[in-house]
């Protein structure tokens, strides 16, 4: 058996684990033998995900979290270490957007609400920095670990409307590269920091923006499909392989990269 991509018995913590993408990734990694920690704000949803994983023979636990609260995240880590004794990977999948941090087609920059822009920046960027800082500590002690941040297509180019979200995701890509150098230089090659940049996947956050109630595409949805050579949205399970690669020994010499999974969206020019 080829163990290069194995995640068996790895303890994997996933912030934003109750979202569409986090749920899929966590459930998949559990089928591969990982011990998955689903972290999120919705306890009922999280417990249901864990119950489903266990029903299929996987190992998982749910922890309610707030990625903006250091004390809460520190307690999350303490609970994980009490249960498993280590943490091998952190997936920073928590994030989101707010209406006031966007600019509608009929609006202008003057409609942007700075307080909501700040909240979106904090949730996505600071909400990645805090768990990284907390979970990095046991990885330093272990001299081994993998951190995968969640960037976005919006990090590569200034998309219309999503002003705050794009700024935050661009920051996450930059932070990923910064941390890759920081941890390797000071703590050794055993700890790697990478990011994944999903293309357009239908989630609860963007569904109304990209599709109509009858399932047809909105104008923005049509624009995305036009820009995507594969001519469709991504399916959540299509992130699984890249995540497994990034937290397995298959990527032992890979750090500071942003892995794009987008059906070609980022290659399209006109």
Notes on the protein architecture:
The mean pLDDT is 96. The protein has helices at residues 20-31, 43-55, 70-84, 114-142, 163-187, 207-210, 219-227, 240-247, and strands at residues 11-15, 35-40, 59-64, 89-92, 145-150, 191-198, 258-261. A seven-stranded parallel β-sheet has the order 3-2-1-4-5-6-7, sandwiched between helices. The protein is an alpha/beta fold. Helix 1 runs parallel beside helix 2 and helix 4 runs parallel beside helix 5 (163-187). The protein folds into two domains: 11-199 and 237-260, NAD(P)-binding Rossmann-like Domain (Rossmann fold, 3-Layer(aba) Sandwich); 203-233, no CATH class. The protein is 43% helix and 14% strand. Helix 4 (114-142) links the parallel strand 4 and strand 5.
């Amino acid at each position: 058996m080829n163990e290069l991509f194995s995640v068996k018995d790895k303890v994997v913590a996933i912030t934003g684990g109750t979202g569409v993408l986090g749920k899929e990734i966590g459930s998949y990694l559990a089928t591969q033998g990982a011990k998955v920690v689903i972290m999120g704000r919705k306890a009922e949803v999280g417990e249901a995900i864990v119950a489903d994983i266990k029903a299929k023979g996987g190992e998982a636990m749910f922890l309610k979290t707030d990625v903006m609260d250091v004390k809460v995240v520190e307690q999350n880590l303490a609970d994980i270490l009490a249960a498993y004794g280590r943490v091998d990977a952190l997936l920073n999948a928590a994030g989101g957007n707010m209406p006031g941090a966007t600019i509608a087609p009929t609006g202008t920059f003057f409609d942007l609400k700075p307080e909501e822009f700040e909240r979106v920046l904090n949730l996505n960027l600071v909400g990645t920095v805090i768990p990284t800082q907390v979970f990095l500590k046991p990885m330093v002690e272990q001299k081994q670990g993998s951190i995968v941040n969640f960037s976005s297509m919006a990090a590569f180019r200034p998309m219309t409307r999503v002003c705050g979200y794009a700024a935050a995701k661009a920051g996450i890509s930059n932070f990923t590269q910064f941390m890759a150098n920081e941890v390797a230089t000071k703590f050794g090659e055993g700890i790697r920091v990478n990011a994944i940049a999903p293309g357009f996947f239908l989630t609860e956050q963007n569904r109304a923006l990209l599709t109509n109630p009858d399932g047809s595409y909105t104008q923005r949805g049509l624009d995305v499909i036009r820009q995507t050579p594969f001519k469709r949205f991504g399916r959540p399970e299509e992130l699984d392989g890249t995540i497994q690669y990034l937290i397995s020994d298959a990527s032992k010499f890979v750090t500071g990269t942003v892995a794009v999974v987008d059906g070609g969206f980022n290659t399209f020019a006109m």
